[in-house]
Amino acid sequence: MAVREESKAGGDGRQRRPIQWAAFRDLWERQRRDVMGPAVRTVTLYVAGGLWAVALLLVFLTWNGARERPLVAEQVPYLVSGGLSALLLTLMGSAVFLYGVLASPPGDDGPESTAAEDERER
User: Fold this and answer.
1) Spatial separation of the C-alpha atoms in residues 83 and 89, rounded to whole Å
2) Residue ranges per structural domain of the chain
3) Cα–Cα distance for residue pair 61/66, rounded to 1 Å
């Protein structure tokens, strides 16, 4: 067990107390829950929706740009750059959306904390 040294009020000697790791872990989890609340889900939903909207706009602009070119060789750069960019934006939006969905809701400590609570009760 780790031990930390603290000086007394008089500064003469030192008192040794064990570090309370359970209290530190509880503080860490409380702060994490406060930071990752419903705001994270709302922001990720808006960011994902925005990325998907830009991807749809990019598909339309790509199609519109390629439609005006009579030669297929002139259409290919539009289709490749616009199509790959739209695909990349769609994947980024999906990753952001999944992060928001999988973020633990406030008050849900997950299976790790239930095991820790069972240990503390013993």
Assistant:
1) 10
2) 37-103
3) 8
The H or E element containing residue 4 is: strand 3-7
**Closest by CA position to 56, among listed 66, 64, 44, 67:** 64
* Contact yes or no for 96/47 (Cβ under 8 A): yes
Residue 65 exposed, middle or buried by CB count within 10 Å (0-12, 13-18, 19+): middle
Query: What's the CA gap between 58 and 44, in Å, rounded?
Result: 21
Contact 103, 41 (CB under 8 A): yes
Going by C-alpha positions, the residue among 57, 29, 13 that lies closest to residue 116 is 29
Instruction: Report how far apart the first and last C-alpha atoms of the chain are (Å, whole number).
Output: 19
Chain-centroid distance, C-alpha 103:
7
60: Cα within 13 Å, side-chain hemisphere? 6
Ranges of residues in the chain with a pLDDT under 70 are 1-13, 31-38, 104-122
Looking at residue 112, its pLDDT comes to 54
